[in-house]
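step=predict obj=Imidazolonepropionase n=412
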Amino acid sequence: MFAACEKIWINAQIASLDSRQPASYGLLTQHALGVSQGLIQNIAPMSAFERARINLNEVEIIDVHGAYLTPGLIDCHTHLIYAGHRAQEFEQRLLGLSYQQIAQQGGGILSTVGATRAASVEQLIELAIPRLKALIAEGVTTLEIKSGYGLDLVTELNILRAARQLAQVFPIRISTTLLGAHALPPDYKNRADAYIDWVCAELIPAAVAENLADAVDVFCEYLAFSPAQTERVLARATDYGLGIHVHAEQLSNQQAATLAASYQAWSADHLEYLDEAGVAAMAKARTVATLLPIAFYFLGETQRPPIDLLRRYQVPMAVATDFNPGTAPLVSLRLAMNMACTLFRLTPEEALAGVTRHAALALGLENKIGQLATGLAADFIVWNIQHPAELAYQVGVNPIKQRVFAGELTYV
Ligand code: NIG
Ligand code: FE
């Protein structure tokens, strides 16, 4: 019903990404989209809008003259909040050291942990704001943020507190993830099981008590935590009803994706070394495969995720930045879309679904965001483009005409 709307966008090409729409991109040509109380109230052809009896004094009409609308973009895997930087490690890697060697010498994640522990919540917020603004400016309306650079009670919770505060101040939805099991802190050297005991007994309950975490994540890798240790964290998270993500098969195959799927994980992420058994398990559990091509590119990896198998088993594929100081210091979801196409051979339509519908699924938010359909959040972008494939094709100019968050036009 357009009559009940507060605002109506008219003359739009709506790339709805709605899986029920038969056209590619879920495209609805010459449509109108009406919004009420932050939600999409109606999407219908212009002919229906023209027939509707609308009181023009009460409804704001926004004519986009044939421009494209898509759902707001969703970056479903980031480590946005940290202090310090790792430019010297970038230099060391170019002089011949590997990411693994740097980590084993106490650099890598632990160097960021040192800088992050020394920062206050206010400082963490200040450092995160320019990164957040860059994502907002390119069309991101929902963002996942992980902890994982504290590895102690105060700092892990401070990162999540900073994430929650950013969501109060900026026009963006933020999904938070407790990644306490990211690396072994120095004070637990050679005592990984004791650290996992602490994550399960102290850290997860403390985060839950303050409602700071929507999900947990574990870095399951020979460099980090074993499948058995990972499983203990996933079981504890399940007890608390938290969502589950796993950093899986990034540098080696640990059968981490199969483990994640056995806990009905929302997503398994990276997946360069994923095998067919893992793909089959993910398909059965409807666990999303979150692809992170910027980290693949930045580490100069050569082993690609098994995209054809993921397609064959119809595993939903999301695309995210993995923004972090070590393996992905490039703050652009549009760049991740481009690299998903050029490096992993996704189609531009798969890349766009990867940052909308499938990214929503990867955050357990598929009933709220990720598609343009009646009843979902009115988070969308009006683009100055001729075809939706342009969003993955070109990076460096910003074709945003309007950014709409919860039904409100936003400027940042
Ligand atoms: O997603 N793989 C583990 N964690 C991050 C890298 C973290 C870092 O190097 O600081 C990632 O690639
Ligand atoms: Fe990551």
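step=describe
The longest strand covers residues 27-36.
step=end
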